Protein backbone atom coordinates (compact mmCIF):
# COMPACT_ATOMS: atom_id res chain seq x y z
CA UNK A 1 0.00 0.00 0.00
CA UNK A 2 1.11 3.51 -0.74
CA UNK A 3 0.88 6.51 1.57
CA UNK A 4 -1.31 9.40 0.49
CA UNK A 5 1.71 11.66 -0.16
CA UNK A 6 2.72 9.48 -3.09
CA UNK A 7 -0.65 9.95 -4.74
CA UNK A 8 -0.98 13.69 -4.29
CA UNK A 9 -4.19 15.59 -3.71
CA UNK A 10 -7.04 14.03 -5.71
CA UNK A 11 -10.54 15.39 -5.11
CA UNK A 12 -13.30 13.14 -6.45
CA UNK A 13 -16.90 13.64 -7.51
CA UNK A 14 -19.14 11.95 -4.93
CA UNK A 15 -22.94 11.68 -5.03
CA UNK A 16 -25.37 10.55 -2.33
CA UNK A 17 -27.63 8.53 -4.68
CA UNK A 18 -25.71 5.59 -6.17
CA UNK A 19 -25.63 5.14 -9.97
CA UNK A 20 -27.36 1.74 -9.72
CA UNK A 21 -30.43 3.38 -8.17
CA UNK A 22 -30.67 6.01 -10.90
CA UNK A 23 -30.03 3.38 -13.58
CA UNK A 24 -32.94 1.32 -12.26
CA UNK A 25 -35.20 4.39 -12.32
CA UNK A 26 -34.10 5.32 -15.84
CA UNK A 27 -35.51 2.00 -17.11
CA UNK A 28 -39.00 2.71 -15.78
CA UNK A 29 -41.92 2.75 -18.22
CA UNK A 30 -43.15 5.91 -16.52
CA UNK A 31 -41.56 9.00 -18.16
CA UNK A 32 -42.08 11.00 -14.94
CA UNK A 33 -39.63 8.62 -13.26
CA UNK A 34 -37.32 7.71 -16.13
CA UNK A 35 -36.58 11.14 -17.59
CA UNK A 36 -35.30 12.86 -14.38
CA UNK A 37 -33.17 9.78 -13.65
CA UNK A 38 -31.64 9.81 -17.13
CA UNK A 39 -30.92 13.53 -16.95
CA UNK A 40 -29.34 13.09 -13.52
CA UNK A 41 -27.14 10.23 -14.75
CA UNK A 42 -26.01 12.32 -17.72
CA UNK A 43 -25.29 15.36 -15.56
CA UNK A 44 -23.35 13.27 -13.04
CA UNK A 45 -21.30 11.61 -15.78
CA UNK A 46 -20.36 15.00 -17.21
CA UNK A 47 -19.32 16.40 -13.85
CA UNK A 48 -17.41 13.24 -12.97
CA UNK A 49 -15.40 13.56 -16.20
CA UNK A 50 -14.79 17.25 -15.52
CA UNK A 51 -13.56 16.42 -12.00
CA UNK A 52 -11.12 13.81 -13.34
CA UNK A 53 -9.65 16.44 -15.68
CA UNK A 54 -9.40 19.20 -13.08
CA UNK A 55 -7.71 16.95 -10.52
CA UNK A 56 -4.68 16.92 -12.80
CA UNK A 57 -4.20 20.54 -11.75
CA UNK A 58 -3.01 20.94 -8.12
CA UNK A 59 -5.27 23.07 -5.91
CA UNK A 60 -4.27 26.65 -5.27
CA UNK A 61 -2.92 27.45 -1.82
CA UNK A 62 -5.09 30.11 -0.18
CA UNK A 63 -4.54 32.02 3.05
CA UNK A 64 -6.29 30.75 6.17
CA UNK A 65 -9.75 32.36 6.34
CA UNK A 66 -11.29 34.12 9.32
CA UNK A 67 -12.85 30.87 10.49
CA UNK A 68 -9.38 29.43 11.09
CA UNK A 69 -8.82 32.01 13.81
CA UNK A 70 -12.28 32.35 15.33
CA UNK A 71 -13.34 28.72 15.37
CA UNK A 72 -16.60 29.70 13.68
CA UNK A 73 -17.93 28.46 10.33
CA UNK A 74 -17.74 30.56 7.18
CA UNK A 75 -20.80 29.55 5.15
CA UNK A 76 -22.05 30.94 1.86
CA UNK A 77 -25.20 29.69 0.13
CA UNK A 78 -26.07 30.13 -3.52
CA UNK A 79 -29.19 29.52 -5.61
CA UNK A 80 -28.69 27.88 -9.01
CA UNK A 81 -32.31 28.70 -9.93
CA UNK A 82 -32.61 25.34 -11.70
CA UNK A 83 -29.57 26.00 -13.84
CA UNK A 84 -26.26 24.13 -13.80
CA UNK A 85 -23.73 26.94 -13.56
CA UNK A 86 -21.98 26.85 -10.19
CA UNK A 87 -22.08 28.31 -7.69
CA UNK A 88 -25.13 30.36 -8.78
CA UNK A 89 -26.54 33.55 -7.23
CA UNK A 90 -25.41 34.36 -3.68
CA UNK A 91 -28.41 34.30 -1.32
CA UNK A 92 -27.05 33.95 2.23
CA UNK A 93 -23.70 34.68 3.84
CA UNK A 94 -22.33 33.72 7.25
CA UNK A 95 -24.16 35.44 10.08
CA UNK A 96 -27.13 36.53 7.98
CA UNK A 97 -30.62 35.60 9.10
CA UNK A 98 -32.85 32.96 7.51
CA UNK A 99 -34.21 33.58 4.03
CA UNK A 100 -37.66 32.75 2.70
CA UNK A 101 -36.22 29.64 1.02
CA UNK A 102 -36.34 26.54 3.22
CA UNK A 103 -33.71 24.76 1.09
CA UNK A 104 -31.22 27.57 1.69
CA UNK A 105 -31.90 27.56 5.43
CA UNK A 106 -31.64 23.78 5.76
CA UNK A 107 -28.36 23.70 3.84
CA UNK A 108 -26.99 26.56 5.96
CA UNK A 109 -27.92 24.72 9.16
CA UNK A 110 -26.54 21.40 7.94
CA UNK A 111 -23.18 22.89 7.01
CA UNK A 112 -23.05 24.53 10.43
CA UNK A 113 -23.94 21.32 12.26
CA UNK A 114 -21.13 19.46 10.48
CA UNK A 115 -18.65 22.21 11.34
CA UNK A 116 -19.83 22.13 14.98
CA UNK A 117 -19.39 18.37 15.39
CA UNK A 118 -15.88 18.42 13.92
CA UNK A 119 -14.86 21.31 16.16
CA UNK A 120 -16.50 20.30 19.42
CA UNK A 121 -15.84 16.56 19.26
CA UNK A 122 -12.46 16.48 17.52
CA UNK A 123 -11.04 20.00 17.69
CA UNK A 124 -10.96 20.26 13.90
CA UNK A 125 -11.76 23.61 12.30
CA UNK A 126 -13.76 22.81 9.20
CA UNK A 127 -13.08 19.90 6.88
CA UNK A 128 -9.49 20.92 6.13
CA UNK A 129 -8.60 21.67 9.77
CA UNK A 130 -7.84 25.28 8.85
CA UNK A 131 -11.26 26.93 8.76
CA UNK A 132 -12.03 26.24 5.10
CA UNK A 133 -15.14 28.19 3.97
CA UNK A 134 -18.17 25.98 3.36
CA UNK A 135 -20.03 26.66 0.11
CA UNK A 136 -23.39 25.23 -0.86
CA UNK A 137 -25.65 25.62 -3.89
CA UNK A 138 -29.34 24.69 -3.88
CA UNK A 139 -31.96 24.24 -6.62
CA UNK A 140 -29.44 22.70 -9.00
CA UNK A 141 -30.88 21.80 -12.40
CA UNK A 142 -34.46 20.66 -13.10
CA UNK A 143 -35.74 17.70 -11.04
CA UNK A 144 -32.14 16.75 -10.26
CA UNK A 145 -32.14 13.53 -8.25
CA UNK A 146 -28.91 13.90 -6.33
CA UNK A 147 -26.62 15.89 -4.08
CA UNK A 148 -22.86 15.94 -4.44
CA UNK A 149 -19.53 17.27 -3.24
CA UNK A 150 -17.28 18.09 -6.19
CA UNK A 151 -14.06 18.65 -4.30
CA UNK A 152 -14.81 22.33 -3.74
CA UNK A 153 -18.44 22.76 -2.73
CA UNK A 154 -21.79 21.14 -1.89
CA UNK A 155 -24.60 21.00 -4.46
CA UNK A 156 -28.23 20.00 -3.84
CA UNK A 157 -30.96 19.07 -6.28
CA UNK A 158 -34.68 19.42 -5.59
CA UNK A 159 -35.50 15.83 -6.49
CA UNK A 160 -38.25 14.81 -8.90
CA UNK A 161 -41.00 14.82 -6.27
CA UNK A 162 -41.93 11.30 -7.35
CA UNK A 163 -39.07 9.24 -5.87
CA UNK A 164 -36.85 11.80 -4.19
CA UNK A 165 -37.69 14.97 -2.29
CA UNK A 166 -35.47 18.02 -1.81
CA UNK A 167 -31.96 16.81 -0.95
CA UNK A 168 -31.57 19.35 1.86
CA UNK A 169 -34.31 17.69 3.96
CA UNK A 170 -31.93 15.14 5.52
CA UNK A 171 -29.12 16.59 7.63
CA UNK A 172 -27.11 13.37 7.34
CA UNK A 173 -27.14 13.72 3.54
CA UNK A 174 -25.63 17.18 3.89
CA UNK A 175 -23.05 15.93 6.38
CA UNK A 176 -22.33 12.80 4.30
CA UNK A 177 -21.37 14.86 1.27
CA UNK A 178 -19.34 17.34 3.31
CA UNK A 179 -17.54 14.41 4.95
CA UNK A 180 -16.21 13.48 1.52
CA UNK A 181 -14.32 16.75 1.85
CA UNK A 182 -13.03 15.66 5.26
CA UNK A 183 -11.71 12.45 3.70
CA UNK A 184 -10.25 14.44 0.80
CA UNK A 185 -8.21 16.56 3.21
CA UNK A 186 -7.12 13.63 5.40
CA UNK A 187 -6.78 10.01 4.24
CA UNK A 188 -7.69 10.94 0.63
CA UNK A 189 -8.98 7.40 0.10
CA UNK A 190 -8.97 6.27 -3.52
CA UNK A 191 -12.47 6.10 -4.94
CA UNK A 192 -12.45 2.52 -6.17
CA UNK A 193 -13.01 -0.93 -4.72
CA UNK A 194 -12.63 -1.36 -0.97
CA UNK A 195 -10.86 1.95 -0.43
CA UNK A 196 -13.73 3.63 -2.28
CA UNK A 197 -16.27 1.74 -0.19
CA UNK A 198 -14.41 2.95 2.91
CA UNK A 199 -14.59 6.49 1.50
CA UNK A 200 -18.38 6.13 1.21
CA UNK A 201 -18.68 4.45 4.58
CA UNK A 202 -16.72 7.19 6.35
CA UNK A 203 -19.18 9.70 4.90
CA UNK A 204 -22.13 7.63 6.15
CA UNK A 205 -20.49 7.37 9.58
CA UNK A 206 -19.92 11.10 9.97
CA UNK A 207 -23.28 11.86 8.36
CA UNK A 208 -24.95 9.74 11.03
CA UNK A 209 -22.79 11.25 13.77
CA UNK A 210 -23.80 14.79 12.78
CA UNK A 211 -27.45 13.74 12.79
CA UNK A 212 -27.13 12.09 16.22
CA UNK A 213 -25.17 15.05 17.60
CA UNK A 214 -27.73 17.59 16.36
CA UNK A 215 -30.61 15.55 17.82
CA UNK A 216 -28.81 14.77 21.09
CA UNK A 217 -29.20 11.04 20.51
CA UNK A 218 -27.27 8.14 22.00
CA UNK A 219 -26.21 5.17 19.89
CA UNK A 220 -29.23 3.25 21.19
CA UNK A 221 -31.67 6.05 20.29
CA UNK A 222 -30.37 6.63 16.76
CA UNK A 223 -32.17 5.14 13.74
CA UNK A 224 -28.87 4.52 11.89
CA UNK A 225 -30.55 5.38 8.59
CA UNK A 226 -28.92 7.48 5.87
CA UNK A 227 -31.35 9.76 4.08
CA UNK A 228 -34.47 9.15 6.16
CA UNK A 229 -37.16 11.53 4.88
CA UNK A 230 -35.59 11.79 1.44
CA UNK A 231 -37.81 9.19 -0.26
CA UNK A 232 -41.19 10.37 -1.54
CA UNK A 233 -44.36 8.89 0.00
CA UNK A 234 -44.98 6.53 -2.94
CA UNK A 235 -41.69 4.68 -2.33
CA UNK A 236 -41.71 1.51 -0.24
CA UNK A 237 -38.70 2.27 1.92
CA UNK A 238 -37.36 4.29 4.81
CA UNK A 239 -34.04 5.66 3.56
CA UNK A 240 -31.19 5.27 1.06
CA UNK A 241 -29.18 3.00 3.36
CA UNK A 242 -29.29 1.37 6.78
CA UNK A 243 -26.08 1.13 8.79
CA UNK A 244 -27.76 -1.15 11.31
CA UNK A 245 -29.12 -3.58 8.74
CA UNK A 246 -27.60 -3.06 5.27
CA UNK A 247 -29.90 -4.37 2.55
CA UNK A 248 -33.15 -3.38 4.29
CA UNK A 249 -33.51 0.36 3.55
CA UNK A 250 -36.01 -0.09 0.71
CA UNK A 251 -37.87 -2.77 -1.22
CA UNK A 252 -39.83 -1.05 -3.96
CA UNK A 253 -41.39 -2.01 -7.29
CA UNK A 254 -39.58 0.86 -9.02
CA UNK A 255 -36.32 1.11 -7.04
CA UNK A 256 -35.95 -2.61 -6.50
CA UNK A 257 -34.52 -4.03 -3.28
CA UNK A 258 -31.66 -2.45 -1.36
CA UNK A 259 -28.64 -4.49 -2.56
CA UNK A 260 -26.12 -3.66 0.18
CA UNK A 261 -24.36 -6.64 1.80
CA UNK A 262 -23.98 -6.72 5.58
CA UNK A 263 -20.90 -8.94 5.73
CA UNK A 264 -17.95 -10.17 3.67
CA UNK A 265 -19.88 -13.41 2.99
CA UNK A 266 -22.00 -11.43 0.52
CA UNK A 267 -19.33 -9.04 -0.78
CA UNK A 268 -20.23 -7.84 -4.29
CA UNK A 269 -17.55 -8.08 -6.96
CA UNK A 270 -18.42 -5.65 -9.75
CA UNK A 271 -16.84 -3.15 -12.09
CA UNK A 272 -19.85 -0.85 -11.87
CA UNK A 273 -20.07 2.09 -9.47
CA UNK A 274 -16.26 2.33 -9.20
CA UNK A 275 -16.08 -1.25 -8.02
CA UNK A 276 -19.22 -1.18 -5.89
CA UNK A 277 -18.30 1.72 -3.59
CA UNK A 278 -21.94 2.42 -2.66
CA UNK A 279 -22.73 -1.29 -2.30
CA UNK A 280 -19.95 -2.77 -0.17
CA UNK A 281 -19.83 0.29 2.11
CA UNK A 282 -22.58 -1.48 4.04
CA UNK A 283 -19.97 -3.83 5.51
CA UNK A 284 -17.82 -1.23 7.35
CA UNK A 285 -21.05 0.71 8.08
CA UNK A 286 -22.41 -2.22 10.06
CA UNK A 287 -19.08 -2.68 11.85
CA UNK A 288 -19.30 0.91 13.05
CA UNK A 289 -22.91 0.47 14.16
CA UNK A 290 -22.00 -2.68 16.11
CA UNK A 291 -19.09 -0.92 17.81
CA UNK A 292 -21.04 2.23 18.67
CA UNK A 293 -23.95 0.35 20.18
CA UNK A 294 -21.63 -2.00 22.08
CA UNK A 295 -19.84 0.97 23.63
CA UNK A 296 -23.09 2.87 24.23
CA UNK A 297 -23.56 6.54 24.99
CA UNK A 298 -22.77 9.18 22.38
CA UNK A 299 -21.44 7.52 19.24
CA UNK A 300 -19.09 10.39 18.42
CA UNK A 301 -17.20 10.14 21.71
CA UNK A 302 -15.55 6.73 21.45
CA UNK A 303 -16.44 4.94 18.21
CA UNK A 304 -16.39 8.19 16.23
CA UNK A 305 -13.12 9.22 17.83
CA UNK A 306 -11.47 5.98 16.73
CA UNK A 307 -12.64 6.45 13.13
CA UNK A 308 -11.44 10.04 13.21
CA UNK A 309 -8.06 8.91 14.58
CA UNK A 310 -7.64 6.46 11.70
CA UNK A 311 -8.82 8.95 9.08
CA UNK A 312 -6.33 11.58 10.24
CA UNK A 313 -3.52 9.09 10.87
CA UNK A 314 -1.33 7.13 8.50
CA UNK A 315 -4.00 5.27 6.56
CA UNK A 316 -2.90 4.42 3.00
CA UNK A 317 -5.00 5.89 0.19
CA UNK A 318 -5.62 2.40 -1.21
CA UNK A 319 -6.41 0.78 2.15
CA UNK A 320 -8.77 -2.19 2.10
CA UNK A 321 -11.25 -3.15 4.82
CA UNK A 322 -8.74 -5.28 6.71
CA UNK A 323 -6.14 -2.50 6.76
CA UNK A 324 -8.71 -0.01 8.06
CA UNK A 325 -9.90 -2.52 10.66
CA UNK A 326 -6.35 -3.14 11.90
CA UNK A 327 -5.82 0.58 12.32
CA UNK A 328 -9.02 0.93 14.36
CA UNK A 329 -7.67 -1.80 16.64
CA UNK A 330 -4.39 0.08 16.97
CA UNK A 331 -6.27 3.32 17.65
CA UNK A 332 -8.37 1.63 20.34
CA UNK A 333 -5.27 0.23 22.01
CA UNK A 334 -3.58 3.63 21.89
CA UNK A 335 -6.55 5.48 23.40
CA UNK A 336 -8.05 2.91 25.77
CA UNK A 337 -5.41 0.25 26.37
CA UNK A 338 -6.21 -3.45 26.62
CA UNK A 339 -9.79 -2.92 27.76
CA UNK A 340 -13.41 -3.42 26.74
CA UNK A 341 -13.13 -0.90 23.92
CA UNK A 342 -10.39 -2.90 22.22
CA UNK A 343 -12.39 -6.10 22.45
CA UNK A 344 -15.50 -4.36 21.13
CA UNK A 345 -13.61 -3.17 18.05
CA UNK A 346 -12.32 -6.65 17.31
CA UNK A 347 -15.76 -8.18 17.80
CA UNK A 348 -17.49 -5.62 15.54
CA UNK A 349 -15.18 -6.35 12.62
CA UNK A 350 -15.34 -10.10 13.28
CA UNK A 351 -19.14 -10.02 13.03
CA UNK A 352 -18.97 -8.61 9.50
CA UNK A 353 -16.19 -10.99 8.47
CA UNK A 354 -13.26 -8.58 8.33
CA UNK A 355 -10.04 -9.84 9.98
CA UNK A 356 -8.10 -7.62 12.36
CA UNK A 357 -5.12 -9.85 13.08
Topology, element by element:
Elements lengths: L13 E2 L3 H8 L4 H24 L11 H5 L4 E5 L9 E5 L8 H21 L11 E5 L8 E3 L4 E3 L14 H14 L8 H23 L9 E2 L14 E2 L8 E2 L3 E2 L15 H4 L5 H14 L7 H9 L9 H16 L3 H12 L6
Parallel strand pairs: 2-4, 4-6
Antiparallel strand pairs: 1-5, 2-3, 5-6, 7-8, 9-10
Helix pairs in contact: 1-2, 4-5, 5-6, 6-8, 8-11, 9-10, 10-11
What does this structure look like?
By secondary structure, this protein is of the alpha+beta class. It has 11 helices and 10 strands. The chain has helices at 19-26, 31-54, 66-70, 102-122, 171-184, 193-215, 273-276, 282-295, 303-311, 321-336, 340-351; strands spanning 14-15, 75-79, 89-93, 134-138, 147-149, 154-156, 225-226, 241-242, 251-252, 256-257. It has a 6-stranded mixed beta sheet, with helices on one face. Strands 7-8 form a two-stranded antiparallel ribbon. A two-stranded antiparallel ribbon has the order 9-10. Helix 4 (102-122) packs across helix 5 and helix 6 (193-215) packs parallel to helix 8 (282-295).
Amino acid sequence: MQPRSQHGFHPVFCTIVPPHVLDKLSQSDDPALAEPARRTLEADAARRTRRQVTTLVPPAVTPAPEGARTGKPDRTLYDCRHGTELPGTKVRAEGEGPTGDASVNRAYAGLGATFELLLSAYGRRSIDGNGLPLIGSVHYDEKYNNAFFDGEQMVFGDGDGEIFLDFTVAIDVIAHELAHGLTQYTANLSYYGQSGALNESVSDVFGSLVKQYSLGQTAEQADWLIGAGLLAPRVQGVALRSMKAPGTAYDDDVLGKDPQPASMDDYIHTGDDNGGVHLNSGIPNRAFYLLATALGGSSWEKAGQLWFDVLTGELAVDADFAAFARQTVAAARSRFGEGDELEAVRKAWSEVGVPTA
